[in-house]
Amino acid sequence: MKILFIEDEIKMAQSISLGLKENGFMIDLSFNGEEGLQLALSNKYDLIISDIILPEKNGVEICKIIRNSDIQTPILFLTALGTTDDKIIGLESGADDYLVKPFEFKELLARINALHRRSTIQEKEKSNLIKVKDLELDLDKKTVKRNQKNIDLTAREFDLVVYFIENINKVVSKKEIAENVWDIHFDTGTNIIEVYVNYLRKKIDKDFEDKLIQTIHGRGYILRA
Description:
Layout: E1 2-6, H1 10-22, E2 26-30, H2 33-42, E3 47-50, H3 59-68, E4 75-79, H4 84-92, E5 97-100, H5 105-127, E6 129-132, E7 135-138, E8 143-146, E9 149-151, H6 155-166, H7 174-182, H8 192-204, E10 213-216, E11 220-223
Parallel strand pairs: 1-2, 1-3, 3-4, 4-5
Antiparallel strand pairs: 6-7, 7-8, 8-9, 10-11
Helix pairs in contact: 2-3, 6-7, 6-8
């Protein structure tokens, strides 16, 4: 687990960093806000720990810029500012947790592990969401939206659009669709593939200017992104 730690109290920062390293964490340490922000924007971290009162740029500013940059890395504030209003300002800036100095190191470890577990769960949930342009599929709930509009698909239609997305920007033949979506050998005397592709097109393409599923004559179909 890689952590960015932004703290201007040098002795405290070094002591905490050493403790975290001894517990198996990799630490990038910064002693001012501007440098810490640049590290956060240019590197991938599992967690960012930051003081609020910092030289050059304070922690709340850092947090807002990180969130406005669409970086969702968990952020934990470590700070001496412990009033309720201070906590509200910190959390509303986009931070995930807030620990007031002084604190016990074992509590810091507990907060770090809790944030990491939460982040891991959220990433797993995100991995079951597929988005292609304005088309969004939830593989767990078996739901489909396009431009935030719910689209009702049958189980077979859902499997078909998933197969198209798995082969995005690639031409797939009727034979490949039959064998992978229907799990049958393709019968050239049936038009079942054309029928279901047409069903799917009417639901996810008909009411939208941008047509995702296209026919490549003599070869099959393609979902273009």
